[in-house]
Amino acid sequence: MKAPPYSTAKVDVVRVPDGETHDVVAVEEPLEIRINGVPVAVTMRTPGHDEELALGFALSEGLRPAGARLPDDFAANTVELDAPGFDPGRLARSFYTSSSCGVCGKGALEAVAVEAPRAEAGWTVRRELVASLPERLRADQGAFAATGGLHATGLFDRDGALLCLREDVGRHNAMDKVIGWAFSDGLLPLSEFILCVSGRLSFELVQKAAVAGCPVLVAVGAPSSLAVDLAADRGITLCGFVRDGRHPRDRPLRRARRAALPARGRRSP
Description:
By secondary structure, this protein is α/β, with parallel strands linked by helices. 27% of the residues lie in helices and 25% in strands. The protein contains 7 helices and 12 strands. It has a 5-stranded mixed β-sheet, covered by helices on one side. Strand 11, helix 7 (225-234) and strand 12 (237-239) form a beta-alpha-beta unit. Helix 6 runs parallel beside helix 7. The two termini are 30 Å apart.
């Protein structure tokens, strides 16, 4: 399990009590996303799969990209989106995301509903399979194994086979890369798949899953209140606190209870 190229860097550190030595950390650099040569967003990310990141970001923001490529001027840390019919007027603000921000200031539930129909899945998944997904994800996190400083998103089929895994310093970037990969492979909407993330479930991750049409979202960590509300509104089953081989169960988390159970009208995995 090797870390992908350009995702890690060596730094000098002082270990206590051993003294000076070296360590490996995750790389974080800005990526400028352009459309028709015009910058529309900057995100702090771990280099690698930048075209996928740009595609996933564009889809999550309601754009209709046709593809992504290196810019004509070969500018470093820059990617060009091909977005036919793009109207710059719809950019009422400059997009700026950071490794801890995501979709700050967005119009929350109403804005997502415009771009994402309800994810009405007609299938179920076994709890034992759900419980196994974070461990399967962790087994392929090469950069995390080297640094301990990266988030991951994995796309699984209904039998639990890992189809795509991406790591990044930004949890939303990791998911954008997976969604961009799925777009390039013609797999959207993700109505027959499961997304699993290595951290907590925040609003922006549920928003991205909703736009991608994924009906099941699994996480090692806790959901936020708005993540739970959005999942219920869009028909997504959230499975939080899935770790150490344990599956979601009814536990005393009253406000986040729906995060461990299906959205209204859906059966439990």
